[in-house]
UniProtKB/TrEMBL annotation:
Organism: Meripilus lineatus
Protein name: Uncharacterized protein
Taxonomy of the source species: Eukaryota, Fungi, Dikarya, Basidiomycota, Agaricomycotina
Top-level taxon: Eukaryota
Length: 451
């Protein structure tokens, strides 16, 4: 296999003839040391083009960035490259593999047991002794091939694992792995009844970040003493005492409950919700625990309200696809409990500003009671928008503690971004009260194509 084909298999080494320049004047060790500071793949590839010496040595640095393989043919080509190292012929050691740190295999093709791509995949996993990061589309190959499953279990340095279409075999691997996993992203299907958290006992002491879908809520059976970031989607509510007990160092939390039919909370009014919240607090106190403040919380107001799980959070990112009347009312009910200093509200609505802007005014009115609020960020998607109408919104917002407001509006293939500063806002309000004129001195608008 030619160097050119090899290079293409690991990340788009530019095609065309290599320029044959004079050898570099600096010592090779110095040049390789400099190359080691480059983290961007394209930067490394550009440096490799400068001379044949760096081209030869540069592969070890390219392999330490993420290698992406897009199809079965690329999988076989990559395997062939990894065993093409001349030193392998002399020593029997596949030295290319010692540099491989991060591998992503994204393809719509099935890997069938017995195919060349299957043997290539198994060989790569068995040889990648220093692999730290692995991202896969699915687990079909592990379900059908015991050899592939064992190869995945045998990765001694794996610290990050991401699978986008996992099933029961992924759950089996999670329960059996002894790799020092610190980051897991498990998108599971057909696992609605699976209780994933007890399956993580082997890695509970090393996990720092966990994302998991379609799981039962956590229980007190397994603790995660160092987990700082948790994102999960469950079908049942959970008591706050469990979350505090199981994740004592949690800083960032995202959660959603798929099943919204909680009969015990469906008709709950504000007083009952407050009583449930106080009951949760009392239960924590009785266990010698406290509901610690979070750095970041992302959840639907409805889920917070129904679960009566209302931790304080420095940043509250409101997770809403559509701001209907129920979501809007729920938002106003939970905000006094969360008490964020930064509030992020993304709203997707197909109404024009005649409907959306009155809703924004209601949000302004609700946030005016938040003594903690320092920064409000609103991201609005609407069908029709006039910039002049948005400029009038600043006269409806009066929250003394807020230092900055950001309003981003996407409409009609453009994006408008408005930044409001508290001191300038006060001056503008005073001018408006006197002259009733709007000269736009506060609002900075930037327009461009929406993404």
């Amino acid at each position: 296999m030619s160097d050119r084909a090899v290079a293409a298999s690991i990340g788009q080494v530019p095609s065309g003839r290599l320029e044959h320049k004079h050898p570099p004047q600096l010592n090779l060790d110095v040049l390789l040391h400099i190359m080691g500071y480059l983290k961007n793949r394209l930067d490394i590839l550009e440096l490799m083009k400068t001379c044949r010496i760096l081209y030869t040595h540069g592969f070890s640095f390219v392999l330490q960035t993420r290698v992406r393989i897009w199809d079965n043919e690329g999988l076989v080509s990559f395997r062939d490259f990894m065993i093409s190292d001349p030193s392998h012929q002399k020593t029997g050691i596949r030295s290319h593999y010692r540099y491989l740190r991060s591998l992503e295999f994204v393809t719509d093709d099935d890997i069938n047991v017995g195919d060349e791509s299957s043997s290539a995949f198994i060989e790569i996993l068995e040889s990648a002794i220093n692999l730290e990061d692995l991202k896969l589309d699915g687990d079909t190959i592990f379900k059908n091939s015991p050899e592939a499953f064992q190869a995945l279990l045998g990765l001694p340095q794996l610290r990050s694992f991401d699978i986008q279409d996992g099933h029961q075999k992924t759950v089996d691997w999670v329960g059996a792995t002894i790799s020092p996993i610190s980051k897991l992203n498990l998108v599971l299907w057909d696992c609605d009844e699976v209780d994933i958290f007890p399956q993580l006992a082997n890695v509970s002491g090393t996990l720092r970040e966990l994302t998991v879908t379609a799981s039962q809520p956590p229980t007190i059976d397994v603790r995660f003493p160092h987990l700082q970031k948790l994102s999960f989607y469950t079908y049942e509510s959970f008591p706050a005492s469990v979350l505090v007990s199981v994740f004592p160092c949690l800083k960032r939390l995202e959660f959603a409950m798929h099943n919204k039919s909680h009969p015990e909370f469906s008709d709950m009014d504000d007083n009952e919700m407050r009583q449930q919240h106080e009951h949760n607090q009392a239960e924590l106190v009785s266990r010698g625990l406290s509901l610690y403040p979070l750095e970041y919380l992302k959840a639907q107001p409805n889920d917070l309200y129904l679960s009566a799980f209302l931790p304080q959070a420095d940043t509250y990112h409101v997770a809403m696809d559509y701001l209907d009347e129920q979501n809007e009312n729920m938002l106003y009910r939970v905000l006094p409990f969360v008490q964020p200093s930064r509030l992020v509200i993304p709203v997707v609505t197909y109404d024009d500003e005649t409907v959306t802007f009155p809703m924004l005014r209601r949000i302004f009115a609700a946030t005016s009671a938040l003594s903690s609020l320092k920064l409000l960020e609103l991201f609005i998607n609407i069908s029709h928008f006039h910039k002049q109408a948005a400029e009038q919104l600043m006269f409806t917002f009066q929250v003394p503690g807020v230092n900055k407001i950001t309003l981003k509006i996407a409409a009609a293939s453009k994006v408008w971004t408005f930044h409001w500063d508290l001191e300038e806002l006060r001056e503008r309000l005073e001018q408006h009260a006197k002259s009733r004129e709007n000269d736009g001195s506060i609002v900075t608008a930037e327009s461009g194509n929406s993404t």
